Amino acid sequence: MGNKGEALRQRVIAAAGELFYQQGYENTSFRDIASAVGISRGNFYYHFKSKDDILHAVIDTRIAGIKATLAEWDKKFTDPGQRLHHYVDILLHNQDNITSYGCPVGSLCTELAKYDHSILTDANKMFVVFRDWLVAQLKLIGVNNNTHRIAMHLISRVQGIAMVTNAFDDKLFLQQEVKQLKQWLDDEILKPSH
Amino acid sequence: MGNKGEALRQRVIAAAGELFYQQGYENTSFRDIASAVGISRGNFYYHFKSKDDILHAVIDTRIAGIKATLAEWDKKFTDPGQRLHHYVDILLHNQDNITSYGCPVGSLCTELAKYDHSILTDANKMFVVFRDWLVAQLKLIGVNNNTHRIAMHLISRVQGIAMVTNAFDDKLFLQQEVKQLKQWLDDEILKPSH
DNA sequence: GTCTATATCGAGATAGAC
DNA sequence: GTCTATCTCGATATAGAC
């Protein structure tokens, strides 16, 4: 198997993914990616058939990365409640990037929704992986009703925080909201007295 | 005063604003706007000096529109609690557009954050108008602490709902979340028993 | 004021040498 | 596999006729 070519392909995907996140997909050119990776523009077309093709590869790689991360969490934390807290804590761990560029999943979906519905469907799968995992954790806790809705609600809360943090360039807001959301998680989901 | 030119200018701003919302700013060309308004491409530069200039005009017009809307609400609803509910209800009233294109303010800020910080600052003023109005309503209710944070929290919740509704193309989610958010508004802000 | 014609640039994509 | 050179297209923007 072409190890050298395969390695380059991975480097392109990594660089493109980062640039798509920081600058947006449409706003990132082959030039940008080429100079980041250190190759020529023409060389792309040996590994990818179009720019869309690179985006698809980026999305696939991200999905694999998300699945790997969640599997790691499953090992690291035995308590599903702890895992849910860890999900919210992503905001805190990535607060600098979120302040500058927003959420990598959310901002990409927002961009794609403006002009390409077929790729949006693919990008949305990143959310679906998170959602299904959240549903699984809720069921493990013993929540039996509305697990899907609660998972979607959590994603929505996290996305709102990321979006507003980015738009207002306000890291403090993120920190306060994370605290509040984790409190809500404890009060309404993990220790329901009603 | 050049009435004919001024009227055309307003038509351009209206058409551009709609297209920027539906297709994104970068993804909308002069061609698109020209054919929507029914003028030639060259004619733009008599009324605007650049594409950025059109965007600034769109933002200014939107800000004026938001202020007018809020002033209308102030007249229509005497109860500040009712006004806060009405703010959340924007989601419901615009559910079709939000499902297709997201929030006009939020998605624009998300796009601009990727490549132009100076215009983002301007676009963000749309949020600030809402935020300041929300703070005013909270104070009228008698809330004295954390009015700024609560206002930001409300914006964040609304943005999260709009973003996820758009990304999942899920109008039902929007409807459920609006219900839940209005319930939260009643329980935690309007009738605090604690 | 509005138009047509054009300049200039950078994008994605291709051809073919090495 | 990777490169250089080039094609084609559509974008913003400008010049100048009407």
How would you portray this structure in words?
The structure is a homodimer of 194-residue chains. By secondary structure, chain A is an all-alpha fold. The first copy, chain A, has a domain of 112 residues: Orthogonal Bundle (Tetracycline Repressor, domain 2), CATH 1.10.357. Chain A has ten helices and no strands. The longest helix of chain A is centred in the N-terminal third of the chain and has 26 residues. Chain A is elongated. The relative contact order of chain A is 0.11. Chains A and B meet through α7, α8, α9 and α10 of A and α7, α8, α9 and α10 of B. Chain A binds a DNA duplex (18 and 18 nucleotides) through α1 and α3.
**What is the total tally of β strands of chain A?**
0
Anisotropy-based shape of chain A: elongated
Most extensive interface between two protein chains, with residue counts: A-B, 39 and 39 residues
How does CATH name the architecture of the domain at 79-190 in chain A?
Orthogonal Bundle
| Quaternary structure | homodimer
Please report the first level of CATH classification, the CATH class of the domain at 79-190 in chain A.
Answer: Mainly Alpha
| Backbone CA Rg of chain A | 19 Å
Amino- and carboxy-terminal Cα gap of chain A:
59 Å
Q: What integer is the average pLDDT of chain A?
A: 96
Look up the CATH topology of the domain at 79-190 in chain A.
Answer: Tetracycline Repressor, domain 2
